[in-house]
Amino acid sequence: MSAPQNMTLIVDGEEKQVNTGTTGAELFFERRDVVVMRVDGVLKDLDQPLPEDAKIESVTIDSPDGLNVLRHSTAHVMAQAVQQLRPDAKLGIGPYITDGFYFDFDVEEPFTPDDLKTLEKMMLKIVNQNQKFARRVVTEDEARAAMADEPYKLILLDKSAEADEAGEGVNVEVGAGEITIYDNVDRKSGDTIWCDLCRGPHLPNTKLISNAFALTRSAAAYWLGNEKNKQLQRIYGTAWPTKEALKAYQERLAEAERRDHRKLGSELDLFSFPDELGSGLPVFHPKGGIVRKAMEDYSRQRHTEAGYDFVYTPHITKGHLYEVSGHLDWYRDGMFPPIHVDETRDAETNEVVKPGQDYYLKPMNCPMHNLIFRSRGRSYRELPLRMFEFGSVYRYEKSGVVHGLTRVRGMTQDDAHIYCTREQMKDELTSTLNFVLALLKDYGLDDFYLELSTKDPEKYVGADEAWDEATRTLAEVAEASGLELVPDPGGAAFYGPKISVQARDAIGRTWQMSTIQLDFNLPERFELEYQAADGSRQRPVMIHRALFGSVERFMGVLIEHYAGAFPAWLAPVQVVGIPVAEAFNDYMGEVIAKLKAAGIRAEADFGSDRFPKKIRTASKDKIPFVLIAGGEDAEAGAVSFRFRDGSQDNGVPVDDAVARIVEAVRNRDHQL
RNA sequence: GCCUCCUUAGCUCAGUCGGUAGAGCGUUUCACUCGUAAUGAAAAGGUCGCCAGUUCGAUUCUGGCAGGGGGCUCCA
User: Fold this and answer.
1) Whole-number Å distance, CA A273 to C1' B65?
2) Taking 70 as the threshold, does the pLDDT of residue A28 lie above it?
3) Which CATH class is domain A283-315+362-562?
């Protein structure tokens, strides 16, 4: 061995002189919070020696990279525990995910909730053993020998060349380049207790995992995410640098559960899903009906102002329409099966005398709007022609995907189709995007980013040249909006690219809301034409757009966004009047009458409950304005406000109170 | 569609090792008339998701179906 030589490194932006062969662990010896490092931009284990002139960045356990490494290492600890508990378990893949990790196993028997508890205890033991994560570079043959009992790992080795495309998480295990195995090594004996084929990097040791982890659920998942493959048993877990961070995460989940629109929908008596109707078919109760009507009324008003025409189309149609549109080719499985009618058979021979027709429930409105366009000759002077409809559509969603109001089988889209010339296309897209964003803001969502979904090479129709132009135009419009733009390659519908608006709700979750899709294809299929200024016949461009997506889904999102506490303009009951005692019923009644006369949804609570109980009831109903009247108020011709946050405003003259409420409703004030 | 768990009063949930069930909230009635999140009492309310099978007897055990939860796959 040669004598140590000095070399220069840039460590977190500062130049440093160290001996050659220095490892990250030595470099960050005094920084206990540093768990891995970036060497010239690449994440590496701390025990790796540092190359000369390298740029080194420390990665702490609470940084995004550090959290990923923590979670991936926790996944390894879990897998080790699983193979102790179930020696038959074969390893699938085990990557980190947002807020946690999972690991897939092929096991004889699925895991039970008790298994998860047992595993957590076993994991804690492993953590406390302070096993070392040791990286080992191996040849493919060595890897195959080490993984001889792990059939799925052998498949991964077969796939290593194409690992990056093989499926979610695969590149965590193997990748192009060298093959590595991570050994879990016992501190005292130096024995390898467990190992896994893995790219790493990992924490230096299991102790750093501490006790801030939990196994959250187990479920089946297809091997490599392919429905045709075997299902493995997946265990999900979460891991955090501190117990406090774990608690905060669990509190976030609890908050999401409190906001669940399915729970609030029944608590607030908004809607239900009667078994008698079938899966994914909601009914809206009177209170939910008010919310829905308020949503729809405002949407109609804004569409009228924005130059849309209102059309109406039936819920069912002969199948031919969807042959022309192509939907039967592409989405037959997602449609309810046909209703066969008008067939006539010979009374004696039972032979078909007249063939009959297949009618389908409509899964899309666009073909019908095309028929309206085509119902007579169109002039360029009519364009852009904007047709809007609250169109009810029915989709045969697979039984396992139906979910509350967000994924249903019968829904109402706020659907519009804009027919315009190619020259008008860009302006029309720009104004549509602005319209959509402005309207979403009025409903209380104001934190957006955009997603640009482009052609799926496996599933599309139409000329490449048209797709390119459409995609370019959408990208330009999206960029002009100034919002963040996320590419979604292959995410487009078969007939054209789209922009979708993703909105973040009050607790930071994102929802796909509005979509704007360009379509060069349906106008072709339906042979749509208009007469241009020069007398020639031209094909219009079609823009599909929906703001809510579906009214049902949007209501679900708003319920969760507002946690059921709707702004006054959407609230089923806007005001509840509570007299302090029965003696003030008449006075309260007059105030409520004034509010009703002003168009406010106001009710008085003259029930036999005591006063505090009535406050509690109004509070649980999330009423925006509770008005209270007692002796002091009546004498002064006033009324007292109690707001949802518990704050108050006492002694407000009745006329001022009415004006204030009317104002808040008219302004669609989000706070109330 | 696949894996897994679940389904008892309007809601949230106990319970029956196979002998047809109970609480809290809500509802109704009576009393109380009260100044900011639960007044007291009484009553009503259940073919224990549906259909079969086993059994003298099934809400309980078995199977099928429906509906739901959590995932996977899918989402025009």
Assistant:
1) 19
2) yes
3) alpha beta
